Amino acid sequence: MTLIAPSLLAADYLKLGEEIKRMESAGVDYLHIDVMDGHFVPNLTFGIDMVAQIAKSTTVPLDVHLMLAEPERYIEAFANAGAAIISVHIEACTHIHATLKAIKKTGAKAGVVLNPGTPAEALNAVLSEADLILQMTVNPGFGGQSFIPETLENIEKLATWRTENNYNYLIEVDGGINQETAELAKKAGTDVLVAGSYLFHSPNLEIAITDMRR
Questions:
Q1: Do 179 and 198 form a contact (C-beta atoms < 8 A)?
Q2: Phi, psi torsion values for 34, nearest 5 degrees
Q3: What are the binding positions for substrate in this chain (predicted)?
Q4: Which of 23, 121, 182, 194 has its CA 20 to 30 A from that of 155?
Q5: 87 annotated binding-site participant
């Protein structure tokens, strides 16, 4: 089954509570929250307090994507704020194995993220530790970018390694996801689709979600 995770980066911030309820009513599986620090990526977005407020307003699990330099400093705070999944970039972590262990210690699921230019092989040492692997299909930092098809090769490798080694991680994609690219990602082995503009700007949200699952 394909899981759907709307990215709140594309929501109307003046109506954020309404937007969250709309997604919850439509039966989404996660709410994807991009946390950016202006250092690891050139943008600023949601912080710890905002995540805590969102967690209080919904029963949908929060999929928190830390686009931060030194993300290990903030793991416990985001877990306490209500994150169900905390994902960190391998490019930002000096000690990725220890960071994933620290996430799991909080009770949250541990995710690791690959930028488009990072080969899947960079994760070989931690594939057995990860609960989720997020392949960025655009360069991180801004919404509304176009899907990078070359990232499908990483997804295919991750799906093959999972089968061959009996790993348990979910494969998630984020960036430029619409009906067409969702199909490509799913065929490559993706389990979780993060979509922003495509869902939040859809004239019929329920149909859009049904089509993405199919």
A1: yes
A2: -90, 120
A3: 7, 65, 141-144, 174-176, 196-197
A4: 23
A5: no
- Indicate the SS3 state at residue 18: helix
Does residue 144 have a known ligand-binding role? yes
Distance, in Å, from the CA atom of 85 to the CA atom of 99, rounded to the nearest integer, reads: 13
Closest C-alpha among 5, 10, 9 to residue 24: 5
Instruction: Report whether 17 belongs to an annotated binding site.
Output: no
At the topology level, CATH places domain 3-213 in TIM Barrel (3.20.20)
Alpha carbon of 132 to those of 17, 42, 90, 172: distances in Å?
Answer: 27, 25, 13, 7
User: Could you tell me whether strands 192-195 and 170-174 are parallel, antiparallel, or unpaired per DSSP bridges?
Assistant: parallel
49 catalytic per annotation: no
Cβ atoms < 10 Å from Cβ of 114:
22
Residue among 29, 63, 131, 174 flagged as catalytic: 174
Annotate 131-191 with three-state secondary structure. CEEEEECCCCCCCCCCCCHHHHHHHHHHHHHHHHHCCCCEEEEECCCCHHHHHHHHHHCCC
* pTM for the predicted model, two decimal places: 0.95
Q: Which of 34, 37, 63, 131 is catalytic?
A: 34
63 is catalytic: no
Q: How far are the Cα atoms of 21, 109, 132, 173 from residue 75, in angstroms, in the given order? A: 26, 11, 16, 22
Whether 196 has a binding-site annotation, put simply, is: yes
Written as one string, the DSSP assignment of 167-181 is ---EEEEESS-SHHH
Q: Give the DSSP letter of residue 47.
A: -
Confirm if 72 and 35 have CB atoms less than 8 A apart.
Answer: no
| Residue 40: predicted pLDDT | 75
- Predicted confidence at residue 199, as pLDDT, reads 94
